[in-house]
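quick one before i forget lol
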Amino acid sequence: MELITLHDKSTILNFLNENPGLQIYSIGDLDDFFWPKTIWYALKEGESIRAIALLYVGMDTPTLLSFYEGDSEFSHQLIKRIKHLLPLKFNAHLSPGLTEIFRRQNIIEYYGLNYKMLLKKAAIDPNDKNIRALKVEDLPVITKFYTISYPQNWFDSRMLETKKYYGYFVDNKLVGVSGIHVYSEEYNVAALGNIATHPDYRGQQIGFKLTSALCYDLQKYVDFIGLNVKSDNEKAIKIYKKIGFEIIGKYDECYMENK
């Protein structure tokens, strides 16, 4: 089994498209917007790619992503063999069992088990006049909104350029936002993110309406719409299922020290 780094997008895409729902984030990182900040490791047997791991270095702390379906053998081998190539500290999104390759004391913080969900039904337009698309010019009010409503949120303001962020307004006040972490028409994928409702307006189905409106728009342009959600976030999971999402996978999220 040969350990290699991949530089050809088509080779990577062919492997990831074996399960596009599970690999939405990685597929999205093939887009020119993210591609220069990616390192792709693979385990190759003959002419076949058996496992892929992505190291995304576009943030202050790099993130390692590796997901498998079924047998974990090849993914397990791959992570073992690239350990010495990984940064001293990094975030990790790994299918169950892969974190065990690292010593327990190397997990600085365990953020919990997460679900990967995929939209399996056509979303319905809520047709609510309080919803409108957000623009780059709205950045100051969006930033203020997240400070109050979702302070631990990671928000890349450049994603507003996709025009795939929606806001809910009551008396011209922004009280809800739904958006994306990944969007690529070329690669036919979108991953939802940055979804939040102002604390004073929760329980009014604002999150449901906003996310429905976003998905209704997205499904005009891409076939695979997914999201990540913490497994204990029962309220959010219930909303996503109501829209038409189904759980298709799990992964552990943690902050690692690679000694």
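fyi The longest strand covers residues 107-119.
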